[in-house]
Design a protein that fits this description.
Distance between the termini: 37 Å
Strand content: under 5%
Number of domains: 1
Radius of gyration: 21 Å
Structural class: mainly alpha
Order of helices and strands: HHHHHHHHHHHHH
Shape: globular
Length: about 325
């Protein structure tokens, strides 16, 4: 509880700093209500990202021989997305998914947990791909140190994720040979984790399909931010520049520092907009991301409804088919 309060305080302090620096304007925030159609469109696009992301996770679960109905996958995704919006960072929602799959995936828990981790990595990879592609689409003559740095960092992280997915099971195999005979329990956990990663490496088309779906999901999230920025006439930047800032803002928003990335995403988004905007730096860019956060909170409310009214939450995944348990 104390940790949550501290993180919330940090988020509010970050928002206060952005307000003090003029990157968040509460008057502009209130005027967002004058654009009900834009807000509705952004909310709808953000809401569609939830079942689409659920489909991506279902692909990864099936690769581990864990099968459940799509409606149940959507229920878990909706619940985890709701809590992930209010718990520290997006990983808060992943914890909710772990809670749901732990009991139901007996005998395949390593695969279930790995599906969540791989799903997270693929989601981050999709954001990086968006950021790299849109950044490279800018005229090369306008490139500054900022653009080169962003592309370099994103490419490095993207390669790191690819290395984990391709060689992770082999590295864990080496670790397992070290632990075996000394720490039996640790060796067993490492072995099961290695097997789950190996399954993804062998079933690489699923990873590609999942990445394609992730790119679509990221496009929906980025699109909601760009819709708000462009249709509410914030001005100063092009849709492409807002796309770059949105991609990196969403990436940083995943850092588990404050509840839902409060203040962190706004700060990263606003800082990039100022860097990309040059003379247009007086625009309260952080307000755009804050409006998106409000839209996101509305779009995830069905997850709270599912959590409250579903009659047997604890057994939601009892239908999972774990045939061939290890």
């Amino acid at each position: 509880m104390a940790s949550t309060i501290l993180r919330l305080a940090i988020g509010l302090l970050l928002l206060g700093a952005l307000f003090y620096s003029g990157l968040i304007d509460l008057v502009v925030l209130r005027t967002a209500l004058h654009y009900p159609v834009t807000l509705a469109l952004a909310t709808f696009v953000s809401f569609l990202a939830i079942p689409t992301a659920a489909f991506r996770w279902q692909l990864l679960l099936r690769s581990q021989a864990l099968h459940l109905r799509f409606v149940d996958t959507v229920r878990i995704a909706a619940i985890s997305t709701f809590f992930g919006t209010f718990l520290p960072g997006a990983v808060g929602g992943d914890i909710i998914r772990v809670v749901y799959v732990h009991r139901a995936s007996f005998g395949r828990r390593a695969g279930a947990y790995m599906s969540i981790l791989v799903d997270r990595m693929i989601g981050l990879a999709a954001l990086m791909i968006w950021a790299i592609v849109v950044t490279l689409s800018r005229p090369s003559g306008s490139f500054t140190l900022l653009e080169y740095t962003l592309v370099l960092l994103s490419s490095g992280l993207l390669v790191s994720i690819a290395i984990v997915l391709v060689f992770g099971d082999r590295v864990l195999g080496i670790c397992n040979s070290i632990f075996r005979g000394r720490w039996h329990k640790i060796a067993e956990i490492v072995e099961h984790t290695s097997q789950a990663l190996r399954q993804y490496r062998l079933d690489w088309p699923v990873l590609l399909y999942s990445l394609g779906v992730a790119i679509l999901v990221s496009g929906m999230q980025i699109g909601a931010i760009v819709i708000i920025a462009v249709l509410m006439n914030f001005g100063g930047l092009s849709a492409g520049d807002y796309t770059i800032a949105a991609a990196y803002g969403l990436l940083v928003n995943n850092v588990p520092l404050t509840p839902g990335g409060l203040g962190v995403g706004e700060g990263a988004f606003a800082s990039l907009c100022v860097a990309l905007g040059g003379a247009a730096g007086n625009t309260p860019y952080g307000t755009i991301f804050l409006i998106f956060r409000c839209v996101l909170m509305i779009s995830v409310l069905p997850g709270l409804l599912v959590y409250l009214v579903y009659p047997d939450r604890a057994h939601l995944l009892d239908r999972v088919d774990t045939a061939g348990r290890d």
